[in-house]
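During the reporting period the student researcher (J.K.) took over the structure-prediction task from the postdoctoral fellow and processed the backlog of single-chain submissions. One of the processed entries is reproduced below for the supervisory committee.
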Amino acid sequence: MEAYKQEFIEFMVDCRVLKFGDFTLKSGRKSPFFMNAGAYVTGAQLKRLGEYYARAIHDKYGDDFDVLFGPAYKGIPLSVATAIAYSELYGREIRYCSNRKEIKDHGDVGILLGSSLNDGDRVVIIEDVTTSGKSIEETFPIITAQADITIKGLMVSLNRMEKGLGGSMSALQEIRDKYGFEADSIVSMAEVIEHLYNKPYKGEIYINDTIKKAIDDYYAVYGA
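J.K. obtained the following structure tokens:
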């Protein structure tokens, strides 16, 4: 596992973004782990988060894209922080774009924030986590209606490695198959488990045998 991935796992734990216990997800599933990007709240945290996304996107897509699109609402700060980090790390000016939940009909009109989307633009979508793929169902028609663009791929911070809406394969694989673009993550839950299972971090075991069994039981039902 790359060093930055190990650092990112520890960063999620430090920021209390990744937690282990008993959680009910938006999908209704009962999960032994939960990831909440809304817990990144400081300038230093957002700066580091943007750097991790930028490294993962650069590893996957290089400089072969023009726009980072972050779906409202959590995708807005992600796209901004990552665009800044990409400029600082790789000297490449990437535009950021997000959508509004409601179309604005005065001033800066339309459904988009930040950059407009233009014919020929190559776009990377950036999100916190994709559990079922529902958010892409909402995002895809919005951005493809704006211009003749090419979606290079989707980057999320954590691949939960569970079944998507179709119920037979992972949400990320469903996205690849349905929309024809790549879908990747900074880290996967398999990498999180590999890095934290029965290994102390700052004096605490975050994935002990009990949590590991709960994760295994969860994946027995929802794993892809």
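The committee noted the following: Residues 43-61 form the longest helix (19 residues).
J.K. will present the remaining backlog at the next meeting.
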